[in-house]
Specification:
binds D-malate, 9-stranded mixed beta sheet, 10 helices
């Protein structure tokens, strides 16, 4: 992060640009959600928000950098469900989610889609499951690195289908989707905030959405439950963080600005177009975010260990 500590004290915060760190590649879903809220948040705060992509290791490199940034409110992390799965997947994680960050608030919870390259043989989700069982050694499954939401969804898919596929890691699902459209990789589990455009344009095949109900903006895509795999249900919640020790006055100013952004009609409309929606204002608070993260850490530790996956 770019926090220089020269941000002065909390009372005149902000008096310089604020860096929002996205721990995945530009052009991916995390980046997309961040840029959506950065503009209205910056307006409310009276500061320029600069988005910085710090890639690597399924989002853990960027998260670690922000954990060690100056706690002055000038380095903010946008992260998602990966904050709650990393401790169960990385043996030597260099940050502790609940101890090394102040939470600002939840942002949005995004459905996932199971998508494939246009000419991948399976026609339906059921065909996909049969196909991967018969061709496990040949099928390639893209993700954004261990701990990414795409990796987690891929894990759940393989566990439910009883297969182990060849995973192809990218620095984000932005570049992964480019390769999928180009036919370089077979299929992927990725967020509607990234795949909606390519699905609607018919550039990729959409087999299912991983939510209990169909996604309004993708009405023709069946749910995994309708498709015979009810266990594959995962939505990607996102939240904002600053380093532990950031003054409460700064945390509150950021949380207030987040609430304003989530009530911004342009943000609401853009999220709806991409299959998602802002969280209610009561969830865009430090308390709600911390409680959610605490519960998610426990939930995913159990699911990951039940799937027989060890931290590495
Ligand atoms: C993920 O798979 O965690 C995200 O989709 C990665 C990204 O935002 O590129």
């Amino acid at each position: 992060g770019a926090g220089t500590g020269s941000g002065g004290n909390a009372s005149n915060y902000p008096n310089q640009n604020i860096t929002f760190v996205v721990p995945f590649s530009a052009g991916g879903p995390t980046d997309t959600v961040t840029r959506m809220i950065a503009e209205p948040m910056g307006k409310k705060l009276g500061a320029q928000i600069v988005v910085q992509n710090v890639e690597g290791a399924g989002g853990t490199v960027g998260a670690g950098e922000v954990a060690r940034a100056d706690p002055d409110g000038y380095t903010v992390l946008m992260h998602h469900i990966g904050m709650s799965t990393a401790p169960a997947l990385y043996a030597n994680l260099d940050y502790k989610p609940l101890e090394d960050f102040e939470m600002i608030g939840l942002v949005t919870e995004v459905p996932m889609t199971v998508v494939a390259r246009k000419d991948f043989p399976p026609a339906t989700f059921q065909d996909l499951v049969a196909y991967v069982k018969a061709n496990a050694d040949k099928v390639t499954l893209a993700n954004a690195g261990i701990g990414a939401a795409s990796h987690l969804c891929g894990l759940l898919f393989q566990s439910a289908a009883g297969v182990k596929l060849q995973e192809v890691p990218y620095q984000g699902t932005g570049p992964a989707l480019t390769d999928l459209v180009g036919g370089q990789v077979d299929f992927m589990c990725d967020q509607t905030t990234n795949t909606s455009g390519q699905i609607t344009a018919g550039k990729v095949k959409a087999y299912a959405v991983t939510t209990p109900e169909r996604v309004k903006s993708l009405p023709d895509v069946p749910t995994t439950t309708e498709s015979g795999m009810p266990n594959l249900q995962v939505s990607v919640w996102h939240g904002l963080y600053v380093p532990k020790g950031t003054p409460q006055e700064v945390v509150q100013k950021l949380s207030e600005a987040l609430k304003v952004a989530l009530a911004d009609q342009a943000v609401i409309d853009q999220m709806a177009k991409l299959g998602t929606a802002p969280v209610p204002a009561t969830d865009a608070t430090p308390e709600a975010h911390r409680a959610h993260l605490d519960e998610q850490l426990k939930t995913w530790a159990k699911i990951i260990s039940d799937a027989g996956v060890k931290a590495s």
